Amino acid sequence: MSYQKRSAWRKRFTPINILIVFFTIFFVVYFVFPFYWQLTTSLRTPANLTAIPPQLFPNPLYFTRYIHIFAETAFPLNVRNSLITSSATTITCLAFSVLSSYSIARLKVPGHRAILIGVLVVSMLPAVAIVGPLYLSFRRLSLINTLPGLIIAYTAFFLPFTMWFLTSFFKTIPPDLEEAATIDGCTPLQALFRIIIPLSAPAVFTIAMLVFIFSWNEFLFAFTFTTSDSIRTYPVGLIMFRGLWNVPWGDLSAASTVVTVPIVIIVLAAQRYVIQGLTAGAVKG
Amino acid sequence: MKIRTGGLTKHQLGYILIAPSLLLIAFVSLYPFLTTIWYSFHSMRLNLPNAAQPFVGFKNYSLLIGSERFLNSIGLTFLFASTFVAIQLVFGLFIALVLNLNFVGRAFVRASILIPWAMALVITALLWQWMYNAVFGVVNAMLLQTGIIKTPIDWLGASASSAYFAVMIVDVWRNTPFMAIIILAGLQSIPTELYEAATIDGAGRVQCFFAITLPQLKHAILVALLFRSIDAFRAFDILYVLTQGGPGTSTEIGSLFAYRMLFQFLDFGRGSAATVMLALFTTILSIAYIRTIRVED
To answer: In chain B, positions 56-115, which contact chain A (CB-CB < 8 Å)?
Structure first.
């Protein structure tokens, strides 16, 4: 080895670099291992589930739980409810926030800045400060234990986020295009639908995905507002799985895997958008 | 220039477009919150449906402030928020710095930090509860096999300190990725010329970090800290599922205490007063947050 090569080699393997690699591996294992454990727990035979110490790689693999949770529990019903709720929330949230963000960013209604700030402050209130009276309101309106009740609540909760995100995105679109269209006789609404929305496709996609994930994972309101299996979403359904003495960890991990894997795939496939969405949501507001 | 809006002025149209969103937020968030404030000044026992609900002034508040359990829950909220967020900041900063380097496997590291974030909080809590299981849990198995502990520990039930430690590991697992993502965005917006100039002047890596990186990151870090702190004050799901506030009340943070007052004891007066005090803290933090992100016109 020449002297130069050796010094380059030494430069790469300084103690500090070795430490960095060590900690990076540690964090990757820390973040990924629980997900791996969930997946493999669901695939352990009943005997292996209670083996001490547990096997790191379960052998043989056991798929019966996946059949069991779909055939004999309320889980498929709960997943259906989650799908309906999350999809409807995403659509209504997008529809409402496209209109209101356009109103703020382009039509600049008087007080738009105060509106934006007020909406954000309200959205940061703790959920427990809202859930009590909302429960009583919903009871009066017969919205307790209904999917529309959940959809209304979720739409309102995630609207501030989508309004902020879309407003700041709309502001980045150069106004020249709309001005030209307006001169050609376009109304503001036509300009919104023909120019702004098509140009905002990436932003709309980002918030659609994030709102879907937020409502897919919501627990507190679903837990408080739903009382029967036919209406419960899956996070509440999973809590109901948990008996008083005997927790079916195998079934729970199978059900958890079923509802988590699609989201993990979406998030990894669209990670650029997820990261942009989270960053813009927090930093630019 | 004249804009055709079907007889409406631009601002009238603007109000029509924004009305549905504002009405919905008013109905689902603002009105219930104002009602909560109203309830907090009344005696409201929903388990006694026929009882009168008289105005009681600040009695609910003074009862709470005199209650050891409530003070404990607020103290825990502050303890959890400050210590967990501080650890997340250090870890998040490290991960962001690593992700800002060019190396083989960077995409893999970036993907791995998104996994905790993709899981529902309920699932996170159930999964860790299983991993912490005193008899069959993988956490004990690992610690026993490496000789770190001699006998299995019931992490979530043994003592206040073991539960605190266990909850911390879950919360850090879940929320460090968010911190890392925000700080990474801050790192990527630092102009590279700053480093080039410093390197020409003979600054080393450590000097660059303290003279350029940290000062330039101040804003991103502040935003991330405030955002995470607000979230920590609102936290509910993980603890509600993982420990139910136990053992005893040793992990019963403010939101758990308030939820129990409301829906377990059905004392809407005192429960509402507790949530109003929590909301006070989050509102102070969110005003600081909004001032930090500087809303432009």
So the answer is: 91, 94-95, 98, 108-115
Closest residue in A to B182 (Cα–Cα): A279
For residue A113, what is the nearest residue in chain B, using CA coordinates?
A: B297
Q: For residues A93 and A216, state if they share a domain.
A: yes
pTM assigned to the model = 0.93
Pairwise CB contact (< 8 Å): A124 & B35? no
pLDDT tens figures, B244-296: 998 999 999 999 999 999 999 999 999 999 999 999 999 999 999 988 886 54
Question: How is domain B64-293 classified at the architecture level of CATH?
Answer: Orthogonal Bundle (1.10)
Please tell me if residue B290 touches chain A, with a CB cutoff of 8 Å. Answer: yes
Contact A127, B236 (CB under 8 A): yes
Q: B22, A249: Cβ pair inside 8 Å?
A: no
Band of residue A278 on the pLDDT scale cut at 50, 70, 90: confident
Of A123, A239, A249, the CB nearest to B241: A239
- Determine whether A75 is exposed, middle or buried from the number of CB atoms within 10 Å of its CB (0-12, 13-18, 19+): buried
- Complex ipTM: 0.92
Q: A247 in helix, strand or coil?
A: coil
CB contact under 8 A, B178 and A278: yes
Neighbours of A198 (CB within 10 A): 9
| For B9, nearest residue in chain A (alpha carbons) | A107
Q: Which residues contact B54 (CB under 8 A, 6 or more apart)?
A: B42, B43
| CA pair distance A247, A256, nearest whole angstrom | 14
Number of Cβ atoms within 10 Å of the Cβ of A161: 22
Q: Considering the domain boundaries, does residue A9 fall inside one? A: no
- Asked whether A209 and A273 are in contact (CB, 8 A), the reply is yes
Q: What domain range includes position A19?
A: 15-62
Mean pLDDT of A47-52: 88
**Does residue A259 lie within any of the structural domains?**
yes
